[in-house]
């Protein structure tokens, strides 16, 4: 009897760290913060499906976390990995700008 591979044995996402680690800083559940999260999810599913994780940090709940990534405005998206760290401020509605900013798509 064959032993199943550990990758297939575990729930998806637990076998290894995702290739893209993203952190979205927001301030409460404002329309702009909600739009940024929805736009980010849509872009990730389209261009990074199965290779990303998103951590949402609400600075109204944890304001001290803003200092670590030097957050000056919200919403701000921080690409933690792959390095180098990159930041994009805004609601992420400009798909081309976000993809180039994250270095998912090269500048034309």
Automatic annotation (TrEMBL):
Check the UniProt entry and state the signal peptide residues, or none.
none
Organism from which the protein derives: Acidovorax soli
Q: What is the lineage of its organism?
A: Bacteria, Pseudomonadati, Pseudomonadota, Betaproteobacteria, Burkholderiales
| UniProt name for this protein | Circadian clock protein KaiB
Q: Which GO BP annotation is one of this protein's? A: rhythmic process
User: Pfam family example for this protein?
Assistant: KaiB
Where's the KaiB domain? Answer: 23-104
């Amino acid at each position: 009897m064959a032993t199943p591979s550990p990758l297939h044995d575990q729930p998806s996402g637990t076998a290894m760290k995702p290739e893209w680690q993203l952190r979205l800083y927001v301030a409460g559940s404002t329309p702009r913060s909600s739009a940024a999260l929805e736009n980010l999810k849509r872009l990730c599913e389209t261009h990074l499906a199965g290779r990303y994780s998103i951590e949402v940090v609400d600075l109204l709940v944890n304001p001290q976390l803003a200092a670590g990534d030097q957050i000056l405005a919200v919403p701000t998206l921080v690409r933690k990995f792959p390095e180098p760290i990159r930041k994009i401020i805004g609601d992420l509605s400009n798909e081309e700008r976000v993809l180039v900013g994250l270095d998912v798509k090269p500048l034309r």
